[in-house]
Amino acid sequence: MKQASQIALLLSFPFIMRLPASAAVPTDQGETPNGLFSIQTCVAEAERILTNSHPGAANPDSVYKCGFRLMSQIRRNRHLLSAGQAERIRSLLYRPQSQAALTSPAGWFKIHYDTTGHDAPSLKDDDHSGLPDFAEAAAQYADYVYGRIIGEMGFRPPPSDHSDGDEYDIYIRNISGYYGWTHPESPAGNERYTSYIEVDNDYTGTQTKGLDGLAVTLAHEFFHAVQLGYNARDEDDRGSYDDAFLMEAASTWMEDALFDSINDYYNYLGRFFEANNVRFDRADGWREYGLCLWFHFLTKKYRDQYRPGEIVRAIWEEIPQYEGLLANDVVLHRLGSSFSQELAVFYAWNTLTGARADTSASYTEGSFYPDLHLDGEFTWSRDTTITDSLFPTACRYYDFHSGPDEGFVLVPVSVHSYLEDGESPFTLALVQDPAGGARYTRIVPGVHAGLAADEADLWECRCVLREPEDPAEILQINCFSTGPDGQGQDLPAGYPNPFLLRRHGAIRLPFHLESSAVVRLIIADAAGFIVREDQAYFQGGTQEWTWNGRDVDGSEVPSGVYLYVILADGTVVRREKIAVIR
Q1: Confidence of residue 492 (pLDDT cuts 50, 70, 90)
Q2: Does residue 157 have a cis bond before it (omega within 30 degrees)?
Q3: Residue 282 is part of a domain; what is its CATH number?
Q4: Which of 337, 370, 387 is the last residue of a domain?
Q5: Is 23 contained in some domain?
Q6: What are the contacts of 553-559 at 24+ separation with CB within 8 A?
Q7: Tell me, what's the pLDDT at 488?
Q8: Mean of the per-residue pLDDT values of the chain
Q9: pLDDT tens digits along 15-53
Q10: 133-142, 198-207, 427-436, 520-529: segment of lowest average pLDDT
Q11: What are the residues whose beta carbons fall under 8 Å from the beta carbon of 558, sequence distance 6 or more?
Q12: 264-278, 314-328, 420-434: least confident range
C-alpha cells in the first residue's frame, strides 16, 4: 500500500540517460576471417576466384584487400579436401607453372608470368627490352620494397625456400576479387614459414588501379612474407593465425609507409569509423585493414624515439615470444607507457578526423579520413550521467557542444584484453560541482567528468577538448571503482541507470558508511508515494543495496523516475533519483 511521503522534497538530481546501441555496431564479436571458416566455404571462395565469378569482378567496392588468410586456411587444410575439391582448386594449392620469368635488377626477386592465356599481363613493351612493362614494373617495385623494409627498416628477410635459386618468387596471375595474396608454404622452424606471392595481372577490378594497385600490393604482401619469417602462430591449426588482425593492419600500414601518395588504405576507413564498441583485435575481412591507423598512430607519436618503421619492427621482434597485444604492451612499457594507455589515446585521436581533423594533434592525413561515428551528441547545459557498456578493448564516443566552435568528446575504453567477449557496464558522469572532489577530472570551468565501473583498473577514459584557434587537447579522465574500494558518496545514483527492469534484473544503489549501522532504504515515485521500504544491517565502508524493481506487494513498478533515500541509524547518507523502464 502506497503512503504519502515528504522525501521527494529533499531531493534534486541530474539528468540521467542511457544511449541505445548504434545499429551500425556488429553484435557478433567473434573472429570471422572474411567469413571463411569451414573448408567447404573456403573451397567455394577458391572456385569463385578461379572462375572470375567473385562479385569483385563487377564491383570493386566488394574486393577484398588480401587473400592471405584464405590461402593459409586452404593450404593448411588440404587433408580435409575431397579428391574432386582438390582437383578443382589445384592451381591455388600449388605454385603456378609460368611460361616465363625475369630476375629483378637487384637480384632479390624472380617475377614469373605467362605470355599467353588467361593469366598473362599486358605484353606492352614501351622500352623495347623484350620484356613486358608490367612484369618489369613488378620487379622494380619489389626491389624498392625489399630495400625499404629489409635494408632501411631492418626487418629480417623472409626465409629462403632454396628452390629454383635464392630469389623470392612472385607470380603474376589473373586474380578476381582480391589484390593478391601470400602463400605460406613450408615450415622453416620455430613456427616460421617460407612463402611466395601472387599478384594481379592488370589491377582493373580493384579500388586502386593499374601500377598503383601493383605497388601497394607488393608492399602489403611482401611484409606478410617478412612476418612469416618471424612467427606464424596458429594454435588452432586452421590457417587462421592468432595475430592475423595485427598482420593485416601492419601490412596495410606498410603500403602507405612505402608509397605515401597512393593511399589505398583510405578505402577501408569508412567501415572502421562507422563501428564503435568493436574489439581492437577483431578481424572480419575489412576492419583489420582500417586498423592500420594503429601503426600510423604509433609511428607519429613516437617519431622522436624511433625512425619510420622501427617501432613496428620492435613489436615484430617480440612476436616470437608474445601474442600480438602483449607484444605491443612489452614495447610500449619500454617507452614508459602501456598498451592500455595508448589504446585510449589512439581512440581519442580517431575523433580528430574528417570535419573535426586536427593534424597537429592527430593523424597527418586525418583531414582526408571520414568523420567518426558518434554514440551520442549533446549540448552541455547541466549534470549528465550516461550508463552504457563495452566489449573488451572497445570504445564509445560522446560529443558535447559547449559553444559554436568548442566542445569536447568523452571516450570511455574497456582496456582489458583478456576478458571474454561479454560487454561490461560503465557509468560516465558529468557534473558542474562535484561533491566527490578528487574523483572527477576538471575539463573546463564548471565541467567535471568521471567514469565509474566495477574495476577501475580495467578502464581508461579520455577527453578530447576542442577550443577555438587552439590545437585539440587530450585529457585523462579519472576512473573509479563502484565496488568495495569506492567511497560511494560521489558515485552516480545507481548501476545501471536507467534500470531496464526486464533486462537488467536489478539495480545497485551504492552508499558509504563511516561505521556499521542499521540501514533503511526508502523508494518513492515521482509523486512522493513510497513504493518500497526495507531495512538491513551493514558493515562500515562502501556498500550496495540491490533493488529488483518491485514494490512492497511484489509487483513490477511502472516506468518512471523514482526517488530513494538511504538512512543509517536515522541519518540520511544518500538521496538520489533513478529511472526505471519496463
Answers
A1: low
A2: no
A3: 1.10.390
A4: 337
A5: no
A6: 556/501, 556/582, 557/501, 557/525, 557/531, 557/582, 558/582
A7: 44
A8: 83
A9: 333 333 332 333 333 334 333 457 777 777 777 777 776
A10: 427-436
A11: 580, 582
A12: 420-434
- pLDDT recorded at residue 152: 96
Cell numbers describing residue 522:
526508502
Q: Could you tell me if 475 and 498 are in contact, meaning their C-beta atoms sit under 8 angstroms apart?
A: no
pLDDT of residue 487: 45
Element (H, E) at 331: helix 324-334
**Together in a domain, 454 and 502:** no
Backbone angles phi and psi of 299, in degrees to 5: -70, -30
The domain boundary, picked from 290, 311, 337, lies at 337
Tally the domains of the chain.
Answer: 3
Query: Domain range holding 156?
Result: 33-337
Does 201 fall in a domain? yes
**Nine-digit cell at 182?**
601470400
**Residue 426 grid cell:** 560503465
Q: What integer pLDDT is reported at residue 53 of this predicted model?
A: 60
Based on the domain organization, do 83 and 129 belong to the same domain? yes
Q: Count of alpha carbons within 13 Å of 73, Cβ hemisphere only?
A: 22
Three cell numbers, residue 195: 612463402
Residue type, 278: V
Which residues are 403's β-sheet partners? 406
Task: Considering only residues 64 and 320, tell me which one the structure prediction assigns the higher pLDDT.
Answer: 320
Three cell numbers, residue 292: 592500420
Q: How far apart are CA 205 and CA 209, in angstroms?
A: 7
CA distance 173 to 193: 22
324 and 250 in one domain?
yes
Residue 480 C-beta-side C-alpha neighbours within 13 Å: 20
State how far the Cα of 229 lies from the Cα of 158, in Å rounded to an integer. 5
Which residues, in sequence order, are CB contacts of 314 under 8 Å at separation 6+?
A: 306, 331, 334
Cβ(266)–Cβ(216) below 8 Å: no
**Is the pLDDT higher at 13 or at 127?**
127
